Amino acid sequence: MLIRVDPGSPIPLFDQLAAAVRAEVVRGALTAGERLPSARELAGSLDLNVHTVLHAYQVLRDEGLIDLRRGRGAVVTDRSHEYSDLAAMLPALVVEAKRLNLSPAALAAMIREAY
Amino acid sequence: MNDYTPAERRRIVVIGAVVPIVIAAVGIALMLSWSSRLPDPVAIHWNGSGEPDGFGSLAGLAWMIGGIAAGFGAIVTLATLFQSAGVYTRTLLGTSVWLSTLITVGVVGSVHMQLGLADARDVGDGAGIGLWLTAGAVGGLVLAIPSAMIAPRAPLVATDEAATPALGLADDERAVWTRTVTPQSWVFVALFGGMLVLLGAVTIGLAVDGASYWSTLGIAIVLVPVAVGTSFWRVRVSAAGFTVRSLLGLPRFSVPIDQIESARVTQVTPLGDFGGWGVRFGSHGRLGVVVRAGEALEVSRRTGRTIVVTVSDARSAAALINGFRERGAVDSR
């Protein structure tokens, strides 16, 4: 999996990290049963605090995308299959938002409203 | 058909088939010329204590020599011409000469020992057989090594792709790419099936007849970690560089980012490019971590050596390596 985070961005790092993992699931680079690197290893590679990575892993666990088990690390769950259906709807949304000159933040806000 | 020139193709046929068949033919002719002075049947097999325990006709031996030399020669030659033998091309062609010499000298020598005998059972002396076989093996090497050296090399496979385009990285951006490498499912099944059979055999052996199976147990204890250690790997690309590490921790190969020249995606045929699976040395200074066929990441060091790892999503890995390289080059300006 390819993970990119930008400390210069206003989006919190743990959020960027979780989003990157989701994107890799959608892209098919991460599949059910696959194990993510340990929080310590990932934190080391990305020069991040290990708590930032753990925070991201907890977010992903809470939404059911990964399982966190002592000794086994973070493992992608079967729910990962369902993410691609959702992801398939996104391009249409983005195209429409771009046509209206909406920023990504504005589109995200609209989605949040709709919840 | 591979990209050999007509001259190279002729050399492949001569070394792989013609020379071995001529060696066999000379041996057969010599053997048949002795037929009036030989017992009938002749001894064709010796037991462990050096006494003949198998007898047959001279014609049968002639067919055996000819069959092995021609059969192996044909397979090697056709495989080389039509189905690349890759790094093993010259070894295979040399082996054809060696095998033919070994069989011919060994068999003709064993017949020579029986010259003038009325009954093949009187030949006795198994030591003579050992000498002839050794002479065949050594003589075979004397002929095979120069043959292999003048045999053509497998043509260099055309470079699949140039260096993968670099991933654009922002100045402060951090990135990492990791992936686990596992064997294709059939290799997986074969590997663990083989281990189970081995362990089962050892267990039964120990239960039935203890002592003599301890060595097999020793082999199993060594083989299992080696099989696991060279089949499952973790590959990582980070700002520090490239690392491929066995899931057991060792072996481990890494290249610091500032020693990397470039990275690209390539396609690997395990047998053709590396002569098999596992940690392998290919031609042209390539070190391979070869677990499956197909997509692979190739990392070139500044020294010109390369390391190749069969891994999916190699394009992302190569793009990230080249992204780090490019950003590093801009920074140091």
From the structure above, extract its key features:
heterodimer, A: 115 residues, two-stranded antiparallel sheet, 5 helices, 3 strands, globular, B: 333 residues, alpha+beta, 5-stranded mixed sheet, 4-stranded antiparallel sheet, 8 helices, 11 strands, 20% strand, elongated
Describe it.
The complex is a heterodimer of chains A (115) and B (333). Chain A has helices at residues 13-27, 39-46, 50-62, 80-99, 104-114, and strands spanning 2-5, 66-69, 73-76. With 115 residues, chain A is mostly helical. In chain A, strands 2-3 form a two-stranded antiparallel ribbon. In chain A, a hairpin with a 3-residue loop joins strand 2 and strand 3 (73-76). Chain A is globular and about 50 Å long. Chain A starts with a strand and ends with a helix. Chain B is 50% helix and 20% strand. Chain B is an alpha+beta fold and 333 residues long. The chains are: A mainly alpha (115), B alpha+beta (333).
The N- to C-terminal Cα distance of chain A equals 30 Å
Could you give the count of β-strands of chain B? 11
- Oligomerization state of this entry? heterodimer
**What kind of sheet is the major sheet of chain A?**
2 strands, antiparallel
> Which strand order spans the largest sheet of chain A, edge to edge or round the barrel?
2-3
Order of helices and strands of chain A: EHHHEEHH
Per DSSP, what share of the residues of chain B sits in E-state strands of 2 or more residues?
15-25%
SSE blueprint and pairings:
The complex is a heterodimer of chains A (115) and B (333).
Chain A: E1 2-5, H1 13-27, H2 39-46, H3 50-62, E2 66-69, E3 73-76, H4 80-99, H5 104-114
Antiparallel strand pairs in A: 2-3
Chain B: H1 6-33, E1 42-46, E2 52-56, H2 58-82, H3 89-112, H4 126-150, E3 174-181, H5 185-208, H6 214-229, E4 233-238, E5 241-246, E6 252-256, E7 260-268, H7 270-274, E8 278-281, E9 286-290, E10 294-301, E11 306-310, H8 314-331
Helix pairs in contact in B: 1-2, 1-3, 2-3, 3-4, 5-6
